[in-house]
Design goal:
By secondary structure, the chain is α/β, with parallel strands linked by helices. It has a domain at 6-72: Arc Repressor Mutant, subunit A (Orthogonal Bundle). Helices cover 43% and strands 21% of the residues. The strands form three sheets. Strands 3, 4, 5, 6, 9, 10 and 11 form a seven-stranded mixed beta sheet that branches. The longest helix is centred in the N-terminal third of the chain and has 29 residues, at 62-90.
Length: 302
């Protein structure tokens, strides 16, 4: 099977967001007939029907939603490659090299960096966004000065400081049988159900597996294994199956939370840096901002 063109994947993602081939074509600066032809070529290449086209617009099929989730991963990866190349190109000029897991990078780190930039005009900062395992690895290797990860314990070889607490939530689409469930799930029911999950190495996957193992029923059974929170959300909304995601990702989306009896999916979000190294300058300032603005919670500081 020949690989799809990146422009075709961008087009499909936009059709899913806008519900219209014409509007997606306009965003990409092309014509509707050209966009329709490109989508048809993509469907033939993958051997899947990705869109339902009506007089009122275009909607993604279930397969289309899943492909869009994977397409976002590819496009995000390309963006990460280009951003990473820029960081490498300017590393000698950067005053602070930071890394963050995807949940932290999406919801918390931008605010901290914004405050840091206001007090340090002209500061050059490189931020690498990847999963928690990779951020920890970069910190150990000296590839970053300060990292932010989702981890139940301090990663080996690193100093750490708690900066926030997050809670994971089981979610389903509105059409899933669990959306109408009146009693909580048991841990055994959750563990026996194939889930849409993040890849191994992500903080979310680590937390879910750890909690289920402690309950004596884990680890999780993967239905789909996806590389970003947005891909997981899209798959759940499309009806692919249940997932466990950050509560920060639930608000305002077409997702129904489902309670689980007797388990706590809370997790610590940590700043990490090489063990034995004293943070100074912008790295120390960024850590101080993160600690000062962290969420209040009953968990002990570590």
């Amino acid at each position: 099977m020949a690989a799809p063109e990146l422009d075709s994947l961008r087009l499909l993602v936009l059709v899913g967001e806008l519900g219209s081939i014409g509007q997606a074509a306009a965003v990409l600066g092309t014509t509707q007939p050209s966009a329709s032809k490109r989508l048809s070529t993509l469907e033939r290449r993958l051997g899947l029907v990705l869109t339902d086209r009506t007089r009122r617009g275009s909607a993604l099929t279930l397969d289309g939603h899943v492909i869009v989730g994977w397409a976002r991963r590819v496009l995000d990866g390309l963006g990460g490659l280009l951003d990473g190349a820029e960081v490498l190109r300017t590393r000698h000029e950067a005053a602070l090299r930071a890394g963050a897991s995807m949940t932290l990078a999406e919801h918390l780190v931008p605010r901290w960096i914004g405050e840091l930039n206001r007090t340090n005009p002209g500061l050059r900062l490189g931020l690498e966004v990847t999963n928690s395992d990779r951020v920890a690895g970069l910190a150990r290797e000296g590839g970053i000065d300060l990292g932010f990860v989702e981890s139940s314990r301090a990663p080996a070889g690193l100093a750490s400081r708690k900066v926030a607490v997050d809670h994971l939530v089981v979610v389903v689409s509105g059409t899933h049988p669990w959306a109408r469930r009146s009693r909580p799930l048991t841990p055994a029911e959750l563990a026996s159900t194939p889930l849409v999950v993040r890849e191994r190495g992500s903080g979310t996957r680590e937390t879910v597996d750890t909690v289920l193992r402690r309950a004596g029923v884990g680890p999780v059974k993967p239905l789909l294994e996806l590389g970003s929170a947005s891909a997981v959300r899209n798959a759940v909304v499309a009806g692919a199956g249940p997932a466990v995601i950050s509560a920060l990702d639930v608000a305002g989306r077409e997702l129904v939370p489902v309670a689980v009896e007797g388990v706590d999916f809370g997790r610590v979000l940590r700043a990490v840096w090489p063990e034995g190294r004293r943070l100074t300058g912008p790295a120390a300032e960024l850590l101080a901002l993160a600690v000062r603005n962290r969420q209040l919670d009953p968990c002990p500081t570590s």
